[in-house]
């Protein structure tokens, strides 16, 4: 996965063939090539053997559930975006999926227009990552952090952080703009590329996971702090927690 990723190829892992078929038809009508798998173990095998711009993954699957698939994909591939499909009754599973590295989610039933917008946003970002990997070196040093944009890596106090794509994009945005407060809506627009309401879970979970990786005490953050009533901002170590 990675270097030879097809810029418009998507894998759907969904056991409901009717839903998978409708999704596939709509994606294909938007110029996207689609592979479909309807069972968990085969889906994982396909995800690890193919080169995809996006993996659409249902939580409830026969053979191997979507959470396990997400975990196993992220063990070897931190870049390929994963969009989870979930029923309203699966909220706990959804949060766990996001904590394991899924990039986004949609709750069934969903608007196909919104779904296509989400897919296109994830594919655009996936393609940009591939293009940036071939660009010349470009780094930023700010406080405890050194960001290497060409290699898509972040070092904190000399140690390499294990970040997902969205965590990298979030941290890069904050470090580039110390002191600036971003609302959850701002972050959805900038990082996920859409402005649909009702998906604060996505932002909150990624922020919490990022704090677990950069804060000494995630329950009392001093680098990525909450701005009550607004959202979040990054505190440069030279500025202090404030």
SSE blueprint and pairings:
Elements: E1 9-13, H1 17-28, E2 33-37, H2 40-49, E3 54-58, H3 66-76, E4 82-86, H4 91-100, E5 104-107, H5 112-132, E6 139-142, E7 145-148, E8 153-156, E9 159-160, H6 165-176, E10 181-183, H7 184-192, H8 200-214, E11 224-227, E12 231-234
Helix pairs in contact: 2-3, 3-4, 6-8, 7-8
Describe, in plain words, how this protein is organized in 3D.
This protein has helices at residues 17-28, 40-49, 66-76, 91-100, 112-132, 165-176, 184-192, 200-214, and strands at 9-13, 33-37, 54-58, 82-86, 104-107, 139-142, 145-148, 153-156, 159-160, 181-183, 224-227, 231-234. The strands form 3 sheets. The protein has a 5-stranded parallel β-sheet, with helices on both faces. A 4-stranded antiparallel β-sheet has the order 6-7-8-9, covered by helices on one side. It folds into 2 domains: 9-132, 3-Layer(aba) Sandwich (Rossmann fold), CATH 3.40.50; 139-234, Arc Repressor Mutant, subunit A (Orthogonal Bundle), CATH 1.10.10. Helix content is 41%, strand content 20%. The model has no long low-confidence stretch (mean pLDDT 86). The chain starts with 8 loop residues before the first strand and ends in an 8-residue tail after the last strand. The protein is globular and about 50 Å long. Helix 3 (66-76) links the parallel strand 3 and strand 4. It is of the alpha/beta class and 242 residues long. It has 8 helices and 12 strands. Helix 2 packs parallel to helix 3 (66-76) and helix 6 crosses helix 8 (200-214).
